[in-house]
Design a protein that fits this description.
The protein has 307 residues and is α/β, with parallel strands linked by helices. The protein is built from 14 helices and six strands. It folds into three domains: 9-124 and 187-203 and 279-306, 3-Layer(aba) Sandwich (Rossmann fold); 131-180; 204-278, Crystal structure of tRNA isopentenylpyrophosphate transferase (bh2366) domain (Helix Hairpins, Orthogonal Bundle), CATH 1.10.287.890. Helix 3 (84-97) crosses helix 4 (112-119).
Amino acid sequence: MSDSKPDSRVRLLVLVGPTASGKTRLGVRAAHALGAEILSADSRQVYRGLDIGSGKDLGDYAEVVPPVPYHLIDVADPREVYSVFHYQRDCYNLLEQNADVERPLLMVGGTGLFVEAVLRGYRIPNVPEDEELRKGLMAQEHDVLLGELRGLDEKLFQRTDRSSKKRVVRAIEIARYSREQPLQYSPPPPIRIDYSVFAIDVAAEDLGRRIDERLDARLSEGMIDEVRGLLDAGVTRERMAQLGLEYRVVTAYLAGVKTKTQMREDLARGIRQLAKRQRTWFRGLPRRGVEVCWIGPGDEQALVDHG
């Protein structure tokens, strides 16, 4: 990264929302109207081969003429970990390449941590994931983990979201790693990011209907065959479980652990729970210093007016 001038800046519109809220289609329409390009902010769409289960909806990008260009989709091998550290690094590179360009870029996604890491300039330690360690820690009680984290690093303990067991485990992973060698952190944003954040607001009942319809459509489109193909290509069952709900549950079905009916029920329930967590995350953005404008599922004009 670069030769950007010290006062370089980039204009970034950000569209977030829970799963099944119609982010991709709305983002594509707005990007087309603005002549903008899309930066995906989805922790699973970065992986090649995770198409149906991750909801890439690549056909939406080609529904307009000319097709809307997109970035940070299909950039990683599913057998390898592409973390928030990698996403922030790659996103900053793209933003720097677009420094001082008149048209905005449009970030679209549902992975709140990816979005916040970019907007708030998180200093992220480049610590590799230790799956064996994580497996052992996740088997322990939450309170035990909190005690271990506090004993390892009081400052990290205070900064960590202690309501999330996964985040506590990650913090312990970082604390243990830092005792063996010095941490390397991601650099600050290379240019100024002038951003506006829009979040799609969908009534819970409507969102539930959308989730059911989209799940059935994805099963019809071949999501089970997609998972089978990934397994045949050498992605392990353990790795599939790490790639999110759809891949974990469908893998269990293919292994004979669940019936097809159980698979469908578990997916529907799990996706609803995910949507609820996403809504909670986005509603907490203002409390964390990121202002949000809530819009309806079809309010393309709100984005265009701010472009």
